[in-house]
Design a protein that fits this description.
- The chain is an alpha/beta fold.
- Helix content is 25%, strand content 27%.
- It has an eight-stranded mixed beta barrel with strand order 1-2-3-4-5-6-7-8, surrounded by six helices. It has a five-stranded antiparallel β-sheet with strand order 12-11-10-9-13, with no helix packed on it. Strands 17-16-15-14-18 form a five-stranded antiparallel β-sheet, with no helix packed on it.
- Strand 15 and strand 16 form a beta hairpin.
- Helix 4 runs parallel beside helix 6.
- The longest helix is centred in the N-terminal third of the chain and has 16 residues.
- The radius of gyration is 23 Å and the shape is elongated.
- The N terminus is likely disordered.
């Protein structure tokens, strides 16, 4: 069967140097994986939906009945694959359960293309159960944070859902790759911050099987491949030393890793920001406390000072002191070291050399003049005068 539309998709992607893939579930039935191996670069497999857990997958009422077959066929042929789970969560506890559900699958296979949470309401379940679509942002963050040790994970949603109900930058800050459904059939990913795009739900394989067709950026595919060169199933989770080594291996394609104390000549308000800020004098060093391998600015400094990248790091040492005075109290007079809002990660305007501390809650402080609020700010980004 000749599929003209499929041929057009293929040519467009070749011209854009994108990787080609399909996502599949039990609805596709038996598939010709030799054909898939020859014509596609990756596969994303639905492993489950919702939070049904069991010791025996054969008893799992919400596992995809074809998932293990698809995984076996991909591994037999060396086809890179990822997994996705369809979201039904209506609260954070259910989100944690959905994270545990997909982790069960992750623990027994090697999905180098990542784990994804499919957020939509195709069957009307969310509407029927009065789940506010805007709450899917919070549930997604809970899911991502529960899988923080997994190198590659992401969120799938339609272009309109991402725009109307979600904060994409915040998802990325929590380590998410963004996989958007945008059926424009143009062979392009509509925003630079998106990693993958579902181009069509009406693509046909040579035998007539209908599948969803996807494209992924070359650089994302290469990073995922490098970050997952080892098979995590060989990890010894009971050995803490080995566990630490595994964490480092996840990001070995980068020049630096968590725990490195670095000096930098520029800093960014977020991992996706393109606007470099000049750090204040005496505030040009810190410890990397988080790494998002595929982000433009992958290294978080001191849990909130800001984000840096390989280009702005000028040196590394084995130890150091980030230097910020965290013992900030209400009533203190402080100087702002980095003018980034705690809640939005956006820069705010500085009108004064010193400010009053109005409120402190953990690392979040509110500063202003008298009782007039200027901004919320991370305590690492201010110093007592």
């Amino acid at each position: 069967m000749v599929n003209t539309m499929s041929a057009i998709f293929m040519q467009k992607v070749r011209n854009k140097t994108m990787k080609r893939g399909i996502d599949i579930s039990r609805h596709q039935g038996e598939l010709d994986f030799d054909y898939i191996k020859e014509n596609f670069d990756f596969v994303i497999i639905r492993c489950a939906y919702g939070s049904d857990l069991s010791e025996d997958d054969s008893e799992c009422r919400q596992c995809d009945s074809m998932a293990q077959t698809y995984i076996d066929e991909c591994e037999k042929r060396g086809i890179p694959y990822g997994l996705y789970i369809y979201q039904y969560a209506g609260n954070n506890d259910e989100s944690l359960s959905e994270a545990a559900h997909i982790r069960e699958w992750y623990n027994k296979c090697n999905p180098t293309m990542g784990l994804y949470l499919d957020i939509e309401d195709a069957d009307g379940y969310k509407a029927e159960h009065d789940i506010d679509y805007h709450d899917t942002q919070e549930f997604a963050l809970t899911w991502l944070d529960a899988l923080s040790d997994v190198t590659a994970k992401g969120i799938y949603a339609s272009h309109s859902w991402l725009n109307d109900y979600m904060n994409v930058d915040e998802l990325i800050e929590h380590g998410a790759l963004i996989w958007e459904a945008h059926w424009n059939d143009d062979g392009e990913i509509c925003e630079d911050k998106f990693a993958m795009s579902q181009e069509s739900s009406d693509y046909y394989l040579a035998d007539g099987t209908r599948v969803d067709y996807n494209i992924m950026r070359d650089e994302v595919y290469d990073m995922l491949t490098r970050a997952n060169e080892y098979d995590h199933r060989s990890d010894n989770v009971e050995d803490n030393d080995n566990a630490n080594e595994d964490t480092n291996t996840d990001t070995e394609q980068l020049q630096y890793q968590i725990g490195d104390y670095v000096e930098y000549n520029a800093i960014y308000a977020s991992s996706t920001s393109e606007a470099a800020l000049t750090p204040s004098s005496g505030f040009t060093c810190g410890t990397i406390t988080r790494v998002i391998p595929w982000a433009s600015n992958p290294y978080l400094i001191d849990d909130g000072t800001g984000w840096v990248n390989d280009r702005c790091i000028v040196s590394k040492s084995s130890s150091g002191n980030s230097g910020a005075d965290n013992d900030i109290k209400v009533g203190d007079k402080v100087r702002v070291l980095l003018n980034v809002n705690y809640d939005t990660d956006q820069a705010f305007v500085l009108y004064y050399d010193e400010y009053d501390v109005i409120q402190v809650n953990g690392n979040r402080a509110v500063i202003g003049i008298g009782n007039i609020v200027t901004s919320a700010i991370d305590v690492h980004n201010i110093e007592r005068i």
